[in-house]
Write a structure and sequence with these properties.
Layout (H helix, E strand, L loop, with lengths): L6 E4 L6 E2 L5 E14 L5 E11 H10 L5 E3 L1
Antiparallel strand pairs: 1-3, 1-5, 2-3, 3-4
Length: 72
């Protein structure tokens, strides 16, 4: 089984979305800086779309915001 651990910063403030079924979620984009620079000497950043559901989503919205460093 493959495993991936990503650490980066949230790109914008989070909002909690409640669905008709009663479940809640939030989505956010995680900006991850690579440890090397490209041929022009510029830093390379990857942007990863993440989705979180339930109590974890509620806690994330409550305690994190734009620029927060998080691990996924």
């Amino acid at each position: 089984m493959n495993q991936v651990a990503l650490v980066g910063r949230i790109t914008k403030d989070l909002t909690l979305k409640e669905h008709s079924s009663g479940r809640v979620n939030t989505t956010f984009v995680l900006a991850i800086n690579r440890s090397f620079k490209n041929a022009n000497g510029e830093a390379v950043t990857d942007f990863v779309l993440c989705s979180v559901w339930g109590r974890i989503a509620e806690n994330l919205v409550r305690h994190c915001g734009k620029g927060s460093l998080v691990g996924v």
